[in-house]
Design a protein that fits this description.
Length: 108
């Protein structure tokens, strides 16, 4: 119902009677589930300083830290890890083994 009320105030032909941006930002439906970082004024400062109700639990923060400490898989070039023991000459040798004559070739 609040949504319909807001929309009915937005879609008014006469700009003199239409709701303003400032009024929209104060409307209950607009404020419902609005992230704190988008809030303005006193409401935002009151909610951001609420240390009794943190946005993340201690367990969530510790899990994020543990995940960040895990080593990531290194970048790959051509299917081989960069900086791995695979020598670039080995890659060239693989390319030399490719048959390009157009003749049918199979291993016996």
């Amino acid at each position: 119902m609040e949504c319909r009320h807001l929309l009915s105030r937005i879609f008014v032909a006469n700009p003199e009677k239409r709701i303003t941006i400032a009024e929209i930002k104060k409307h209950p439906w607009f404020l419902k589930n609005l992230p704190i970082e988008f809030m303005e004024g006193e409401e935002a400062s009151l909610q951001t300083n609420d240390s009794d109700n943190p946005s993340q639990s201690t367990e969530e923060v510790l899990a994020i830290i543990q995940e960040a400490r895990k080593p990531a898989e290194g970048p790959k070039v051509g299917g081989h890890f960069v900086g791995s023991s695979m020598d670039l000459d080995d890659i060239d040798a693989d390319i030399d083994d490719i048959e390009t004559s157009g003749d049918f070739v199979c291993a016996l």
